[in-house]
Amino acid sequence: MNKRIFIAISISPALQEIILQWENNLSNLPVRWLKGKNLHITIIPPWYESDVDSLIQKLKDMEGKTGAIELTFQRVTFGPDPRSPRLIWSEGKTPPQLPILRHEMSKKLEQKEEIRPFLLHLTLARFRQEDFRNFPVKTLDETVSWKETVRSLVLMESKLSPAGAEYEPLATINL
Questions:
Q1: CA distances from 91 to 67, 75, 144 (A)
Q2: Domains in the chain, number
Q3: Is 13 helix (H, G, I), strand (E, B) or coil?
Q4: Residue 126, Cβ neighbours under 10 Å: how many?
Q5: CA 170 to CA 7: how far, in whole Å?
Q6: Is the bond leading into 99 cis (omega within 30 degrees of zero)?
Q7: 141-150, strands of its sheet edge to edge
Q8: Pseudo-torsion of CA 96, 102, 103, 106, nearest 10°?
């Protein structure tokens, strides 16, 4: 059976707590906030896979090749297009290791590589574009200083439902 999977960086419980406190300031917005295990940074976007065990073995072959990666998020905005947004996300400067890692993993996993340059971002909330016109605020550009040391990646399964996606970790890959 095919599973919808992707490669991600999980967000630590410490940073999850900081984000949760920050979100309290915007609790009046009609958005679906991502919480806990659903907070992640996508490295390779979702695809359908039938042989997950073989894939996990390929990922395990890549362990220990990168080392820890430092992430810093500097601002929270509406995105990806601030004029017609569908997300609230936090952005930061992309560490040089991430695009290289994404390229190597795409090749190893035989996944079509994204054409767009890698943009470090963390989705905090989702909403329908058409709902934005009723938002009490139309601009969001808040400076933050959120830091995360990444020591592993996660193979996640994405389970879609009308209430939104839920993510389940299938394997951890140490950097």
A1: 22, 6, 9
A2: 1
A3: helix
A4: 15
A5: 10
A6: no
A7: 32-33, 121-126, 87-92, 69-79, 141-150
A8: 180
Strand-pair partners of 76: 90, 142
User: pTM here?
Assistant: 0.91
- Return the sign of the alpha-carbon dihedral for residues 82, 111, 43, 123: positive
Considering just the CA atoms, what is the radius of gyration of the chain in Å?
16
3-state secondary structure of 147: strand
Q: Which regions in the chain score pLDDT beneath 70?
A: none
Q: Read off the CATH number of the domain in which 92 is found.
A: 3.90.1140.10
- The boundaries of the domain holding residue 67 are 3-174
Measure the CA–CA gap between 50 and 54, rounded to whole angstroms: 9
Determine the Cα–Cα distance for residues 137 and 31; give it in Å rounded to an integer: 12
Strands (E), 69-120: 69-79, 87-92
φ, ψ (nearest 5 deg) of residue 28: -80, -10
pLDDT, tens only, 55-67:
999 999 999 988 9
